[in-house]
Amino acid sequence: MTQPLQPLLHDSIVVLTAPSQAWSAADGTVDGHGIHGFYNSDLRVLDRIVLRVGGELPEHIATATPDAATAVFTSLARRIDDATADPRVRVERTRRVVAGELRETVVVRNALSTPLSTTVSVDVRADFSPMQVIKAGLTGAEHPVTVTATEAGLALASGPVTARLVADGAEIAVDVARSVLTWDVHIPARGSVEVGWTATVDDPTAVVSGAAPSAEWAEFAAATGDSRLAAWLQTAIADLQGLRMSTSERPDEVFLAAGAPWFFTLFGRDSLWAARMLLPLGTELAASTLRILAHFQGTRSVAETAEQPGKIMHELRPAALTIPGEGVVLPPLYYGTVDATALWVMLLHDAWKWGMPEAEVEALLPHLEAALAWMRDYGDTDGDGFLEYVDTTGHGLANQGWKDSGDSIQWRDGTLAEGPIALCEVQGYAYEAAVGGAELLAAFGRQGADEWRAWAADLKARFAEAFWIDDPVGAYPAVALDAAGRKVDTVTSNIGHLLGTGILTAEQSALIARRLASPELSSGYGLRTMSTDAGGFWPLSYHGGSVWAHDTAIAVAGLAKDGHTAEADALADGLLAAAAGFGYRMPELHSGDSAADTATPVPYPAACRPQAWSAAAAVAVLSARLGLRADAQRGTLEVSPSDGAGRIHVDGIRFAGASRTIEAG
Predict the structure, then answer these.
(1) Overall average pLDDT of the 158-170 stretch
(2) Residue 576: predicted pLDDT
(3) Dihedral (C-alpha) 360, 361, 366, 372: value to the nearest 10 degrees?
(4) What is the pLDDT of residue 374?
(5) pLDDT at 332 over 70
(6) pLDDT value at position 1?
(7) Which helix or strand (DSSP H or E) is residue 339 part of?
(8) pLDDT band, residue 3 (cuts 50/70/90)
(9) Which terminus of the chain, N or C, has fewer Cβ atoms within 10 Å?
């Protein structure tokens, strides 16, 4: 039996508006292979969409994606053309995805001096395979699939999920394998004809739904001396508009879906980081993300879901998530994350600094107190004074930091560390959360500020003593402490997350900055997740040598905050080179191959795109280059451009509820 393989994504076209997405080949064909299909929520509704003109597949010549929701596929129909060299019959197929709906129009243009009569047909096939099954390289619906011809088109169903396909003017043929929509068309000389169809999905089991685009984001515009940054920002904002989502239970609370296709839902860590990076575009997304996560904040201890009082959740699904072949089964609402709780506190503090309304901040302070208490009372599973994680179920996530693959925490020789694992960056998050939380408590006249400042100071002292490793090149923090409290000695990008948190001394920050700028970690296309001198390094390893845009952007922001602007600019330049190589739609991750060896970045072929925090990284880079420092309580927005910023003009930066224009260079 052939081993099933996870579909590759790098050479496919995606159009999306959460919670719907359509993946195809470059010519628009959906052929039933791999990721191809039209999806709503976590279900592939159609796995075949094949266009023919005159009974033949048109010959593809171009694809354009004017926005995240739209693709235009241009092709030629030479079988019905004349015999001259110039193509005279052109086919323009426009595909648009809105929430719960796929729309296609096909325009056939005839430049001949004589009319044409031909057919336009579209083969479609119902599928209803769950996303987790497709990710495992398999197919198969959970419930029987039915397809019925209707007066207007087709009615599709599988269990409680139904879809309606409308094709005005088409003849409909239905059989077991596929359905065919056919239009007989007459195209005038030097004229055109248009046909179209629409598929609409109704899924009563969905736990997420689409959210309207942000009008404020639409007003954001940047002109930069480095055209790559402006192009990346433009594409990123369009992609982020398509990733806006809410839950079915609380439709007014908008957050960003983590990414397409696999993570089209609420993820605590991803949604928090993306919202934090996007604070210069306004506090509304941050506020609604904070509220929806507060709604799901843990209130009791449940081993099966990893819920604990005060803990922020990891991910939300309509049903249990089973990952075939990996022994992982996650409940629909899963709390297996060690960092989301501190990140929630950090976002609340920063949103307050950017001008989140005081009443909205104050309403979340009980959740802040619960989150801080979780760090103290539950985050430390073994009593060593550090936050760590361990999966107690045997079928949850083995690693519960942002590098959550099973082999992400390794010793320098490549062997795996054993948990409970205390990640270095999580201690930095906890320190920053405690200090920021204390500032909020004091500002709003609540008890506990002094206690949390003392807790943070104690954590900082213990971190300096327990995590640092002496090395001839320069001391560096261990990526983690293992179950025995030993320093896991691999050099990784995790250390970059410590910058700007306050847990480091100035000398320690400088040591990390120098390490991040080294050729072992800096690839020229961003920051490698693992140093090239580690035994487990591989440039196409998910967390062991690849480059993640958000990971690099976090390091860039921390470097800029700690005053290491040269190193920040160098890493940012690497991301800009990568963004150009990917047409400015930055994927979830890419290969850690050196820019010195490859003219363009090498894709990680199964990477999601667009990905919320990869897109938001563009705004983080802009913020770092401008040196933005917000303090709404003092009424100041500091702008201190780095040497590498060049000329930058930005409209639509939002501070304390008002739009600002910023000019640098």
Answers:
(1) 97
(2) 98
(3) 150
(4) 98
(5) yes
(6) 59
(7) none
(8) confident
(9) N
Measured between its terminal Cα atoms, the distance across the chain in Å is 62
Q: Give the amino acid at 525.
A: Y
Pick from 604, 639, 619, 538: nearest CA to 572: 619
In the prediction, which pLDDT does 440 show?
Answer: 98
CB-based contacts of 619, cutoff 8 Å, min separation 6: 233, 236, 277, 278, 280, 281
Residue 382: band (very low, low, confident or very high) from pLDDT cuts 50, 70, 90:
confident
Tally helices (H) and strands (E) across the chain: 14, 32
Q: What is the pTM of this model?
A: 0.97
Q: How far is CA 353 from the centre of its chain?
A: 25
DSSP collapsed to 3 states, 503-527: CCCHHHHHHHHHHHCCCCCECCCCE
Q: Where are the alpha helices (DSSP H) in 334-448?
A: 340-353, 358-363, 365-377, 424-443
> Tens digits of per-residue pLDDT, 624-637?
999 999 999 999 99
d(CA 319, CA 206): 9
Annotate 543-579 with three-state secondary structure: CCCCECHHHHHHHHHHHHHCCCHHHHHHHHHHHHHHH
User: What amino acid occupies position 298?
Assistant: G
Specify the amino acid at residue 260: A
Domains of the chain, first to last: 13-202 (2.70.98.40), 208-664 (1.50.10.10)
Quote the CA–CA distance of 593 and 524 in Å, as a whole number.
Answer: 9
Radius of gyration for the chain, computed over Cα atoms and rounded to the nearest angstrom: 26
**Nearest-angstrom CA–CA distance, 496 and 512:** 7
Q: What gap in Å lies between CA 217 and CA 653, rounded to an integer?
A: 9
